[in-house]
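User: Good morning. I'm curious how adenosine-5'-diphosphate would be positioned relative to this chain. Could you predict the structure with it bound?
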Amino acid sequence: MTKNGPANEPAPWVEEALRRRTHELGERVKELNCLYAIYHLSEKRDISVDEILAGACELIPPAWQYPEITCGRITYLGRVFESRGCRETPWRQAAPIFVQGARAGSVEVFYLEEMPDIDEGPFLKEERSLINAMAEQLALLIERVLTEEALRDSERKLHALSQQVIAAQEAERARLSRELHDDLGHQLAALRLELDWLIKKHSGATAAQDLAAIMDMVSTATAQLRRICKGIRPMIPDYMGLGLAMEALVEDFRAHSGANIELDIRPAECAPFDPDIAINLYRILQETLTNIARHAGASRVVIRFGESHGVLALDVEDDGIGMNAPDSAGTQGLGIAGMRERAALCGGSVAIESRPGGGARVQVRIPAPQSPAAG
Ligand SMILES: Nc1ncnc2c1ncn2[C@@H]1O[C@H](COP(=O)(O)OP(=O)(O)O)[C@@H](O)[C@H]1O
Ligand SMILES: [Mg+2]
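Assistant: Good morning! Here's the predicted structure, ligand included:
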């Protein structure tokens, strides 16, 4: 047998079958590439529905049998996306796009020239499967994007709402505190003057004693009222700087907690500044100290507050029992969630580092307001 003899050459029908198979395989690869490309579109984050559909149109021509004379069009809720140079012709294949159970659009493929009939007009049966798969994949993608958008939207609304609640709460507290202080406070003051006068007027020992006892009660009520007003709305911007208010808060905490407390507030920050930032920082410290008193069982607490490089920094560190997954803390309790909202309200954030048995460290960072002199 000779090496290159006709017996070694494939018969023409084999060659033809091989050529056809190779061509068919090439077509399947093109179809798969199209589906992969849609899949890759889905991996892009923050991609819009319009961007997906515009991108998908361009995937159509190369995936069909005759790329040079094929164009794609996708319609979705009245918006039309087309591959370059697309126009409507009689040689058309289409599949509907169903989004959330309703027909929302379609995928269409056109041949710009007449081609011989095969399975579905000039289109292959595999191309029917492909256009259906494209329409289904696009529908799933659109549904996902819509769900993500709705989620982001409701998160934004929730965020705005909780900030409004915080602002309304502060305004209401301020009003309540003012009314208690002004109305009830003045009435108590008037009562004291009246009692004073009565004590002087009645020289009888028992009456004077009784009146003095009433005077004591009124004095106690006055002191209590002052404390309540201060708790409801500390007079931060009005009378003293944030630093002094923080010191008073820490003093109060020291008196009740029994922990060893180190406080470092740099004097520059004691000057009054933006009342919104002041009240929010004050409330964040208040909640942090309440949490330490309530949950930490700490023996040592370090509190630092100051400004550096245009950032207001409040750090509170305790050596208590610590907690698991501090970043998710605040998803249940309202305290930490409120701290985060208040910081966000001032353009800042709260980070909590902690592990069980290792204490906790709360770090608040807020951009310092521009001082008028610097601006
Ligand atoms: N300093 C801390 N040390 C240990 N655990 C803490 C500390 N601060 C907060 N936690 C934990 O985080 C949880 C959430 O706190 P918070 O949102 O303020 O809600 P609440 O105080 O109402 O429970 C607390 O229940 C507590 O388990
Ligand atoms: Mg709390």
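Residues 29 and 237 are 71 Å apart (CA to CA). Residues 125-201 form the longest helix (77 residues).
Let me know if you'd like a different ligand tried.
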